[in-house]
Structures are given as structure tokens and as C-alpha cells.
Amino acid sequence: MLDLAKQNVFYVVQINVSSLVRTDGECVDHCQEGFFVHKESQECEPCHKDCRSCGGPRSDDCDSCEDDFTLKDGQCLDRKQLTTCPERQFKTSCVDECPKGYFNNEQEQECMQCHADCASCDGPDDKDCNVCRNPKAVRYDGECLARCPSNTYHDENNNECTACDKSCLTCSGHEPTDCLSCDANRRVDESGGCVWSSQCTMDSYVDLNGDCQRCHTQCRRCDGPGKDHCLSCNESHLLLNGTCVKKCPVGYYVEDKVDPACERCHPSCESCFGHHSQHCKTCKPGFFKQASSCVETCSERFENIKKKNFPDRFLCLLCCSLCCCSKDV
Prior knowledge:
Residues 164-255 form the Growth factor receptor domain. There is one protein chain. By secondary structure, the protein is mostly beta strands. Among the domains are: 4-78, Hormone Receptor, Insulin-like Growth Factor Receptor 1, Chain A domain 2; 164-234, no CATH class. 1% of the residues lie in helices and 40% in strands. The chain is built from one helix and 36 strands. It has one helix spanning 79-82; strands spanning 21-23, 26-28, 35-37, 44-46, 51-54, 62-65, 70-72, 75-77, 88-90, 93-95, 102-105, 110-113, 118-121, 129-132, 138-140, 143-145, 152-155, 160-163, 170-171, 179-181, 186-188, 194-196, 204-206, 212-214, 219-222, 230-233, 238-240, 243-245, 252-255, 261-264, 269-272, 280-283, 288-290, 293-295, 302-307, 310-318. The chain starts with 20 loop residues before the first strand and ends in an 11-residue tail after the last strand.
């Protein structure tokens, strides 16, 4: 009988070398958590920072996620990214229209709350109201006021204070023939326009001697001799603070009305296409351009970006899906 105790017994273990991978110079049978096997080098490479485990290096190669992230289509998304809507978002829900008291921020695709004075609005400031919260208030340049300022009239159709013609002291409409009262030395004539008391024509004014004198050649109507005494301008010119110019300067836009004039932009805008805070084309130094607004601080999910060749000009750009892109533009 064979005595096994006296025999040298050897066991052969087969190892599949092709299944081993390398990590830090050592061969192991699998990568540790947070790493994946690179197909060509057969080395353990790190996953994207948001992945707990993965099949590749990209942000959409995740198999499982770190805490506070949810796996969706290979990506690890936080709560805000999970509620990103095709149209717009209100709080944590996707909606077709923003509710009353909120406006649609198109850049962020989110409903944001109006100013406390506004029942509805098209921006966050107190001058962005479309309808006033107080039913007794009136609107002037988007702001809700207790009464219309002087040199304006109350347009009951839209509950808005609209500027009188420059020739009127008070008025019932925006036309030069809608004057209710006039300044010194002028009176309301039969047509409703303000004319000089000495019957001067519309393109003239009364001098200190009570005589009618022609307006400056740039003025269509005026209240004095200089080129800065214009009330309206000849064709192809625009009224700017009593003067007639061919083009509005930076910080102003063309208000298209009976007598076109240059009106001042919102204080945050360097150039603009309207007077609201969301009508900016470019921003003043120290402000960030976010969509058509100029803001002091970029909203959440946006990154401050410095604009090349303009060290004092900044933009707010929407971050990447999982990380912000930190680079100049």
C-alpha cells in the first residue's frame, strides 16, 4: 500500500495571465474602486471625479456614483441637473409657463421672481414691471408709482405714464396738439398746441424783446436760440438733451416715437436696445454680461469668464454639465 505521508505531493495552480492588470507597477486581478481597465495598456486608469465606478474616463462612462449624485445615462447628476427642463423650470418642476409674479429667465431656463412691486414683469428689477402689484399704482418706464410724474400723462389703456411732447407742460396725450398747459410766454392755441403768446410760428421762439426769432437750423421746434434749445429735430436727426444729433452716443438707445429721441440705457448697461435691465448689449466695467442683462454676480450654474483683450469686461457663461470650463474667451 502506498504511504502518501512519505510522498512529496505538489499541486499545480493555473493562472490566466491575460486576466491580470497593472496598477502602480504591480499585477492584480482587478482594479480598485474608482479605476477602470484601459483596453490598450491593460493598466488601471482613474474614473471621472463624479464616478464611484466606471468603464471609461469620461463623465458619461459612470457605472455608479458618489454620494449626492444620481446615475442617469452614464452620467452622475446632482439634484439641479436632474430637474433641467426643455423649456423652463419653476422651483423643482418643469413648466410650460412661469406662474404669476415670476418671469422666464431664458438663459437659465428658470422662472425667477419679480420685484415685490410687480404683479408681472420681464426682469428682476423694480423698473421691469409689466403690471403693478398695487392696483392703484401707475407704471412709468416699468416702475410702479403712486402717480404720474410731471410732463407725463396717464394712458388708461395700459395703465402707463407716457411722456408729453417736449413743448407741453402738462398734456392729455403724446402729440404736440395734446397740450393742457404750457410754460412761460406760451399758451395753448385752438389746435391744442403750445404757441408763443406773440403768435410765433412753431419753428420759432420769442426773444427777450418779445420778438419772434427763428430756431437754430438743427431744430424743428425750440424754446431758445441755441442748438441746445431744441424741442424736436429735423428729419434724420435725433433729440438728445435738447440738442439734435445724427446718432445716439454710447449709453443711449433710439426711442422710436413721433419725434425720435435718444433715451438713456439702464444704469448697468454700457450700450442697449431699450431701457429695461434685460435690454443690455454690453455692460459697464465691473458688471458681468448674462444673456441680455448686466449683473454684479453671475447666477448659480454660471461661471465668471474674462473676455480677451478687454480685462475689465466679463461674461457669465453656463457651466458644462458636470464641471465649469475655466478659460478666457
